[in-house]
Every structure is written in C-alpha cells, then in structure tokens.
Amino acid sequence: MLDKLKIAAVLLVIGAISGISIWGVNELTEPVIERNQAAAEAEMYRELFPDLSEVEIEEYDHNLLSQMIIVYGDNGSEIGRIFRGTTTNNFGEVTALIGIASDSTIARVIISDHTNTPNYANIIINDYLHRFDGQDITNISYDANTGASATYGAVRRLIEAAVIEVAGDVRLEAYETMFTDAASYESDTVTLDGVDELYNVYDSSDNALGVVYEITAANEGVYIAFDTDGALVAVKTQDNLEDVTAFDAYLGLTAEEISLDVSGDLEESIAETLQTILDSMSGVTAIDGEYLVSYKPYSVDGEIVGYLFEGRAEGFSGENIITVAIDFAGEIIDVVLVNYSDTPDYVESSVLPNLEDLVGLTSLDGLSADDTFSGASSTGGSIFDVVTEAFTYFGDNLSDSTPIDDDVLTKRETLYNESDEAIGYTYYGVGTGLNGDVEVMVAIDNDGAIISVELGEHGETEDYVNNYILDNLSHFEGLTEAEGESSDTFAGATNTGNAIYTVVESALSYHADGPSEPTDPDEDEVDLIDINGTTLFGVVENMEDDVLVSKTYYGVSEGRNGDVEVLVTVDLEGTIINVELGEHGETDYYVDEYILENLDTFNNLSEYDTVLDDTFAGATVTGNAILTVVKEVLATTYVDEGVIDRYVHIYDESNNHIETQYAAITEGRNGDVEVLVTLDLDNTIVSVELGDHSETGYYVDEYILDNLSVFTGENETISVDTFAGATVTGEAIVEAVQAVIDYTRTIFVEGQTVTKVVEVYESGTLSAHRYHSVVEGRNGDVEVLVTLDLDNTIVSVELGDHSETGYYVDEYILDNLSVFTGESETISVDTFAGATVTGEAIVEAVQAVIDYTRTTFVEGQTVTKVVEVYESGTLSAHRYHSVVEGRNGDVEVLVTLDLDNTIVSVELGNHSETGYYVDEYILDNLSVFTGESETISVDTFAGATVTGEAIVEAVQAVFDYLNTVVLEDTVLTHYIMDYTGGNLSGYTYYGEASGRNGNVEVIVSIDLTSTIVSVELGEHDETDYYVNEYIQGSLSDLVGLTSTDSLEANDAFTGATVTGEAIVTVVEAVLVHERDGE
Amino acid sequence: MAEAKAKAAKTFDPKKAAAKKKGEMTKMANLTKGWIKENPIFAQLLGMCPALAVTSTLETAIGMGLLVIFVLTASNIVISLIKNLVPKEVKIPVFIVVIATFVTIVRMLTQAYASALYDSLGIFIPLIVVNCLILGRAEAFASKNKLIDSAIDGIGMAMGFMGALMLIGVSRELLATGSIAYGVYLPLPFEGSILNLVVDPERTWTSIFYIINISIFSGPAGGFIMIGILLAIFNAVRIKKAKKREAERQAWIEQKKKEAMERKRKKALESAGDAA
C-alpha cells in the first residue's frame, strides 16, 4: 500500500513540477507569441492589400467563413474585404484568406494554414493561387485539371463562399431560372470532355430536382440542365441566362430520344459537349468501326433486351445514319434509317418497307448487298454494310457465347429461362481427369449461386462416372463460393473429382470477379515427381515450412474391377505414416467393409511383413493390389545420386533380404537407357537387365541382350571393350554398371567439403580412395575428385561437375592438376593456376581432402573432430573443433594445440552471432588463450556474456577431451584428470548404475590421496521429490571416504533403496579402481 | 606483405585494447562517443524521422539540432537527479513526462522567439517527445549515471545528432538549391547565402552545374537518398577500420605463434643438449 502511495506521490510531484514549469514558460511567452501572430496576420493582410492602412475585423460564422476583415485605404475609404474561412478535406483542414477588392475582383488568395500534404499543397500555393488575382468574382475560372485536388477544391469552396457573401449566389439565381424550386446546390464530380462543372440541384426540403452541367462552348459559359427523369430542361448562356433556342426542340426529351442536329458556331460547340453528356447518360459506348460509331443497351418496355448499334454509311447522295437493334440471342429486333440523304420518295417506297424483312435474322448469310434492298440501290448497300458490321461486332464482343481467356474456363453463354429472360451464365471449362480432359459445364444464376453442374466429354470409364460422379454432381447446387482447397467433399479427391471441382471453382471465381489470375488446373499434381517403378509412378514431397517432412508415393496396381490407385505416405526414415486409396473401380460396399478400415494396418511399418500376404483384406485381388504397391514402397529406396535412380531390396520366400536391384539411367544412342543391376549381399553382380529404353529392337537383340551375362559374377569394373563393342549404348550400359558398383563402395559424408568417398579397386584389391570435394568456384560449385593411394598420397586430381568456362578450364586448370600428384602435403595456392577464384577453390578442395584423411571424428562430445596439422611434412599441432551454444545458436571454436598441448591459437569457426558483437568483444580477445595449457577462467575473457562463456566452455572442453581417460569397466565410463594451477590435483570419475527408474549417472571427484572430495548426481530419471528428500542431503556423507571398508558402515545410506544402492555401487567402483592402483 | 604484417604487429597492442575496453570512460570519451563511433543517426539509426523531415536545409537542421541539444541535456540532467527517487514501475512514464515538459517549453520558446523556425519545423517540434534518441539516453545512460556524466552524455549525443543533421542538411540544400542560405529560419541579425554555385537555368547537358538544383533533394525522397549515401560512406569507413584492426590482430597472433614455436624449439634443443 505504502509503495503505491509512494508511486502516486512521485507522479503527483513530477506532474506538478512539470505543470508549473510549463505554466511559467507560457506566461512568459504568451504575449510574445500573440504579438508574433498578430504581426504575421497583419503581414498577410498587407500581402492581400498592399495599400491597406487600417482594418476592421468582424467575427462571422456563416458558410465556412469565420471572419470578415474590412480593409480601408489611406483616404479612409474601403478598398476591399478579406474573408477568412476554414474547410476540411480528406487530408485535414485548410484555412484561407480571400481578398475581394471593391471593384468585385479578387485581390489575392492566401492559404494561411493547412494540414494537407505539404508537397501537394505547396504546388497549389506556388503555382495556382495567384491565377485568381484580378478575376471577376461573377465569372471566376477555376483550373479544370487541379480542380480535383483536395487542397484546390478546399480553396475553391472558400472562394465561392466569399463570393456569395459579396455578390450574392449568382449560381443559385441562375439555377432558379431552370428549376423554380431550386434552393441549394452541391458540386459533383464529373470527368466528361468539355464539361467544367456538374451540380446537383435541390429544393428547400433537400429533394433532388436535377443536375446542371456547366460547360464552356465557343468561349462562352453555358448551363445545361436535366431533370431527375433525365429530360433536358434548359440550355442557357451563363452571361445573360438566355436560352440557346436551337435546343428548344429537344427540351423535355431524354438522352435516348435526342438526336442532335443544330447549326451555328456556339450551337455546334454546345452540341458536341451535349452529345458526350447524352452518351454518358444513355450508356453509349463508342465503336471505331468502318461504319459503326457506337452501341448502347436497347430496351423494350423498360427492360434491356439487347444492343442498339448506330452506324453511318455512304448512300446515293450522302451519309445515311442507320440503327440496328440486336437482342441477346443475336436476332435483329429492329432496323431504322434514322437520317438519310437519298431521294425521299425512293427511300420511302422502296427501302423502308423492306427493312422489316431483316427482323428475326441472325446473320446476313445468303443475302447480298445487291439483292436485298430494293434492287442494288446505294441506300440498300449502306444498310447492308452497317447491319453486317453490327453482326460481326456483336458476335465478337457481345454475343452470349463469350470466349474466356483462362487456363480452365473456355467460354460462357448467357442462360435464359423459359420466358427468354437472361437468368445467368453457363461456364464451360476443362479439367484433367485420370484418363485425360474432362469437360464440365457450370450454370450460375445472376445471384452467383450454382444452378447445375454437368459433365461434357471425358475419357473416364463409364462405371466410374456412373457410380461416383453423376450422382454427386448435385452436391454443388446452390453453392455461391468454392469450398476452399479441400475438395474431399466431392468424389473423394480423385483425379476426376478434382478436375470437376477445379472447373466449378474457376467458374464461381470468374462469375464473382471477372477474369482472374490464370490458375493451374493441375496445381495439386504439379509437385508429382515422375518415378519409374513397377507399380509406382510418382512421388510428392510433403513440405512443412519449406522442410521436407514426408513423401507420398503414388502407385497403381490391378484390382478386381480395374486399376486401383494407392497413395502411400512414408516419413524420412521410410516408415509408413498413412496409406490411402486413390481412384479405383471397386464397389463402395467392398471398399468400406474390407479395405478402408484396414489401411491403418500398414502404419508404422518400415519393413514388409509377409504375414500381411494372408491377413490383409482377406487376400482378395484388390487387397493384393494394395499390398503390391505397399511392398514396392517399402522395398524401394529412391536415391538421386548421379545416374543411380533407385534400389529395391529383393526378399526370398522367408522374407530374408537376399539381393538388391539397382536401377541406373544413362544416355544411349536414342535416349535414356534404364539398366537394372542385381547384386547379392557381397555386392557381386547376379544379373544385369535392360529396363526402359528407346533403342532399336534389332540392335538390342543382336548386340546387347546376349552379352549382358558377361557382367554376372563380377564385382569389378568391366572394360567397355568386353561388352557390346564400343557403341554408344554399349558404353552407356557399362557406365551404368560401373556407377552401381561405385555406389555400393561409396561412403556419403554430410555437412563437409568432402561429400563422398569411393573405394577404388584394382584387380580385385582395394588400391585407393577417391574423395569428392565440392567447393565454390567463380561460376558456382566445382566438384574436385582427389584420388589418394592407401598411404594417402595423391594419385590424381580431376575436375568433376562444374560451371566454369571451357576456355578457362582448358587453359589454366586441366594442365596444372598434375602438380598435386605425389603430394601428401598441402599445396600452396601460388603453385597452382594463379590466385584465381577457381584456382583457389581447387586448392581448397584438395586441402579439404587431405584434412579429411587426417581428421578423427568424435561423436556425442563437445569436441566434434580433431584434425592433424602438418608443417613441412611433420605433424606440428592438432586442431580441435569444439561446438558449444552461444547466444544465437551453435558456435564452432577451433582450438589449435601444439604437440605439448599448449594453445597456439583459438579461432571462431561457424557461428550465428552478430558481426558487431563478434568484432567488438570476441575476436580481439581470443588471443588471451594463446600460450595457455590450463583451464582459462571465464572472467578473463569477453566478460560474462553467453557467447563469451560458451567459448571458454569450448576451450575447456578441449582440455577435458584431452584429459579424459575412457575406462573399460561395467560401472565406470571414464575419468577426467583435474588440474589446479597447472598441477594434477585429482580425478573426476563418471559412472552409471541402475536406479529405480533407469540408469543413474554418478560423478565422483577424488583428490590425489584417493579421498572422495564430492559426489554428485548426473543424469537420472528419479523423481525430484525422492532425490531432494533422500539423496541430496546424504551425498555429503560419502565425502572423505578413502576405502570401501568405511563404505560398509554406510549401508544405511538412503535406506538401502535401489537408487541409494546405485550411488553406493558407483562410489565403490571408484574406490576399488583407486585401490587397485591403475 | 610480410613488412606490412610486421608493422601491424607493432601497432596492435592487445593489452591496451583490453584496458581500453575495461577501463572507465573519460569525460572526453563520454562527450565524443556520440560524434562518430556511436553517432545516433549513422551508427545507431535513432531519430531517423527528424533526420529525414527537417534536413532539407542546413538552417532547419541546425535549429532542430539545437532544440535536441537543449531537450536531451536538460532531460538527462533532471533524470539523473531524480533517478533514485523514481520507483522503477513508473520509470518510463516519468521520463516521458520530463521529456514532454522540456519539449513543450522549447516549443513555446521557439514559437515566441524563432517563429520562422517554428513554422518550418512544424509538427516535428512536438515529435521530439517521441524521438527514441532522447528516451533511449534517459533509459540507457542518465538513469544509471551521475549528474555530470549524464549532462556530458546528453550534450555529446545531441551534438552528434546535430552534426549528422547538419551534414545531411548541407548536402541536401546544396544539391537542391546550389547554395546555402542563412538567416531564413534562424533568428539571425543578417541573412543571405553562401557558396552560390552557378545554377544553369537552361539545364544544358554540357554545364557542370547541371547536376545542381536537383529539386528531389529538397523533398523526403531526397532525404532518404542522401541518408542512404551518407550511411554507405560511414559504413564503408567503419568496415575498413574493422578490417585493419583485424589484420593487426592477426599479425599479432602470428607473431605470438612464432614466439611460441621459437620457445618450443629452444626447449627441444636444450633438452636434446641435456640428453647428449
């Protein structure tokens, strides 16, 4: 409570002091600030009216304005007024001063304050505001382009408000002449060519009366007004509000009914803009056709039934204007000759009556321009041209069947009900089923709900479709959204099911959003990597967060009713996690009853169990099909190692592994050749067979098949001469067999520069090792093959895979590789290929191989490896790699000790610490270890940071490693020699014995007189309660013991429990070991 | 190469380096650490918002710099004074109240006595309250150190901040306008401009001053570009120095190794002599 009061008191005091300080400064500065503001204000008034001598400020609260400042000149007469107004836009407030001179012109406009984006506001302030200077307030010209910017718009509203204060509302007065009840108006946005402004006009109850377009035509301002029904109300000049009489004929007509035809400069100029306005009102879309100029929706009795095309074509004595109405189904509803310049008598008698013949046509095929209309007249021809182009345009752009440019959907057609009303669309799409394309039609109504889904052409089996698909299509009815990625709900995630689902999904998406990003209909299958097994045909790598977690193998085997697809998912160790059925033709009853429930029998299987042959699914044909696939998955290992594709374990009848068949794929004359090499458990070739290949039958029969037996019994390389002559395919087969033999003799190394080690045999005897070392050259990874004889002397260095340029390699590398031969030492980089990136990389690769041969790998310790370091051919030091945990993860510390085990250097290897920290705190200090042969205290190094401590621990671990003696004892595992001040001070023994819940590790330290100094528990599984209550307190009883004799007196230790006895056992073993004096 | 190594070995003294790291910081080191090594803008990337917004001219940069010197020093002093009185639960709110008080005071003073600067810095004066540099120094330094040290830290860091702003400001103003103006924003008794590189109004490609008057540098985008360029230079120098230090250290280790080997060889020779 007191604490809280204290906090409150402190906050109160601080707050009070703060408040008083601010009040004090405010008192001091307020008058100055007010003076500054007044001066700035006066400065602005003077900017508006330089001749100002006195002002009179009148507070105001009207129509955005807050102040009116009446400005007087030297002679005391009023020279103008300044209005201060504030308005808000989307970006904040804008305050402006509008100066209006006594002669009704704008003196100046200044933005005095604003919170708009400075850059945009500055453009208006600097470039646009001065354009108002001197303008007559009754006819202010606003900038059309900037008009849409927020800041300019705000200023404009303020100017208009100011102008109304001075001159009254000229605009409203004008509008009152067009709409008698007009009481207010509101600006609206408009982007039509030629239109300056658009205002909505309201009566005193805020009911809309109509709109007024303000345009400039032939340099004159003109109002064009329409009422709320879209009928033209007035066309007046702004200057004197006089009607432009040429348009009187159109008053009261709507956009659809008006076809403008006026003459005179002003009139034509107005008509041009008015036509744009009319088009925008009636939904006219311009067409840049040979004859067609526009089209718009065509309605009958207020309902849109099609399109009305307008076209112009040359007749006998001038241009004819023709409109053609075509309904959604593509039939002509109406053709009108709107305006013609041909002889009226002729047109009326010979053309117009024939137009009706066109109604109902869906094309002009079979008709010709010459015959159709009145005996090859020009007028007939012009109509023919327009109608023909209208059909073409309709077919291409507007017809019901609209092609869709999409990966899945192909087109859509308008859907009509029985009363011929368009109620939606039918989408056509194609998905990929098991046996090829599946065409699907999806009907969607105007509300976006699926009406029906139907199957079109497909290659699936009738049985499958009848049983699984057709009955389920109704599942989609009524859906308005796809159900997400899972299509499990439909047809059980089969290929065909997915194909249909994909089309449905695309159709819904297209219907809702229009064209979408192209989607890959095979998205679910793109990750299927082809494999070429007996029953297996593909594998999908299942990733989680970009890490491979499992693989799903796809296999097909023959069941009772046809192919059965089986999906087997295995984890990275090859243990089955899941088995599912894919597509199949078996009956539902059978599958549900016998198969599905038993599929989990396979889970956790990593080797095939022959018991399953009899027990799974009652040994039915379909059951066996599934077993065949599962068996192949379990027996096969896919390796992607050079040409080796996979290997399969072959079992005898008692399920013993007797042989392994490797499949290698090499390139023959006509393409890939799959070679199947079967080896027994001694890696001797049992048989070589040809798998898939594209070689000619004759060649294979004649030269290959008979000769494959030459490999049998060999476990050596076969020379190419021995086999099938030196043909391309012969060589490919030899290469494959050799690759298999090499593969069996290869040790794969992970996480090192050396990636693999291959044993090389000569005449059946191991003669050398070939090390594959991968380093980074200029253009990417370079594989270097270093062959060492059994004394680890370099026999040869060759280049493996690399991406370096041929010229560089030929010129600088290949010729020089021989410098390595005969060496068993490091090669200096200067000696080889100059100091190029790739040259250095190759030297590094060779060095890595030599290091690798001199490295002892340690498992399960802090020290992970020990590398011998040679100088001038003599062993000069050992480098210990110690891995400990720093702040950001593992830190590798490289500790080099000379032959006296004195530290020569400590360096940082791989780590994830921050560069700054390492530079600042670690690297400079690593030298403190140099010269030491003892433990380093943690205080000496890099402060007590996590990584600092970890590095000390790593160095200490090296010494521990050196001081550790491994014991061959049933209880004791090892001991570490303890040093204090450079002298041996005792030993720490590590032992294990069985406690109640498992092994208990006991750590016993003794001094040089074999007296126990301490006993601690290491790792154990005993309960905390038991250990704390019974063990920990008693451990000190064991300190000071020197012989097992005194130990017997301690039988009572921890009440002779199992765990207590385990501790005693270890202590006893230590004392016995000491007594026996090793 | 060998010569350079030997030379480096001579110049690198690990004991000195360690002592330097361990030892108490001198008052001078405390004052100057923020100038280059721990510069708020270039090394710590603190207070980037004003660094971008108010550095379009040298004068606004100086103005903001002066305000920050005042606020940071004053708040560091007050926070150092009250550090033992403030319960740690309300440490941060109290710091913010202190900082906000000084910012409010400085805002009123600026508005009263440097109104052009006030108009130009605009929203960025109140925003000094949330400048992470100021709260950062309060929390990291002033609340743990004595009065004098805290005051020195405040002055030094703010000077570093101001220096960085000025560097950015002068570069941007020069590139944007071709000259450096004075007396426009700060209440100086005189005004004018210096440098006044001849800007080529025709913008002919042959003119070397075509590159001047790049108006983008007066806007925020120019701020980003200029800070990017200066950061790159700053980092390049820093990395070069770090590499030099590393080379010296390596040379020193080499030497130590050599000495150890030498000792070992001697010992071996001696024991061989003894055996003989």
Largest sheet of chain B: 2 strands, antiparallel
Proportion of β residues of chain A? 25-35%
Mean pLDDT of chain B: 82
Mean pLDDT of chain A: 79
**Most extensive chain-chain interface:** A-B, 34 and 36 residues
What proportion strand of chain B? under 5%
Strand arrangement within the widest β-sheet of chain A reads: 1-2-3-4-5
How many strands in all of chain B?
2
SS class of chain B = mainly alpha
Total number of helical segments of chain A? 22
Regions with little confidence, pLDDT below 50 for 5+ residues of chain A: 516-526
Q: In one word, what is the shape of chain A?
A: extended
Q: Estimate the helix proportion of chain A, in percent.
A: 25-40%
Order of strands, main sheet of chain B, comes to 1-2
Q: Name the poorly predicted regions of chain B.
A: none
Largest sheet of chain A: 5 strands, antiparallel
Integer-rounded radius of gyration of chain A: 48 Å
Distance between the termini of chain B: 41 Å
Span from first to last CA of chain A?
Answer: 68 Å
Q: Percent of residues of chain B in helical segments? A: 55-70%
Instruction: Output the structural class of chain A.
Output: alpha+beta
Blueprint (SSEs and pairs):
The complex is a heterodimer of chains A (1078) and B (276).
Chain A: H1 2-48, E1 54-62, E2 65-72, E3 78-89, E4 92-101, E5 106-114, H2 118-128, H3 150-167, H4 170-178, E6 184-188, E7 195-202, E8 208-217, E9 220-227, E10 232-237, H5 265-282, E11 285-286, E12 292-300, E13 303-314, E14 319-327, E15 332-339, H6 344-355, H7 369-372, H8 378-398, E16 402-403, E17 409-416, E18 422-433, E19 436-445, E20 450-455, H9 462-469, H10 495-513, E21 528-530, E22 536-544, E23 547-559, E24 562-571, E25 576-581, H11 588-595, H12 611-615, H13 621-635, E26 636-641, E27 644-651, E28 657-667, E29 672-680, E30 685-690, H14 697-704, H15 728-744, E31 746-748, E32 754-762, E33 765-776, E34 781-789, E35 794-799, H16 806-813, H17 837-853, E36 855-857, E37 863-871, E38 874-885, E39 890-898, E40 903-908, H18 915-922, H19 946-963, E41 964-966, E42 972-980, E43 983-994, E44 999-1007, E45 1012-1017, H20 1024-1035, H21 1044-1048, H22 1058-1075
Antiparallel strand pairs in A: 1-2, 2-3, 3-4, 4-5, 6-7, 7-8, 8-9, 9-10, 11-12, 12-13, 13-14, 14-15, 16-17, 17-18, 18-19, 19-20, 21-22, 22-23, 23-24, 24-25, 26-27, 27-28, 28-29, 29-30, 31-32, 32-33, 33-34, 34-35, 36-37, 37-38, 38-39, 39-40, 41-42, 42-43, 43-44, 44-45
Chain B: H1 2-11, H2 14-22, H3 27-32, H4 48-53, H5 58-82, H6 91-113, H7 115-121, H8 132-142, H9 147-177, E1 180-182, E2 192-194, H10 220-275
Antiparallel strand pairs in B: 1-2
Helix pairs in contact in B: 1-10, 5-6, 5-8, 5-9, 6-7, 6-8, 8-9
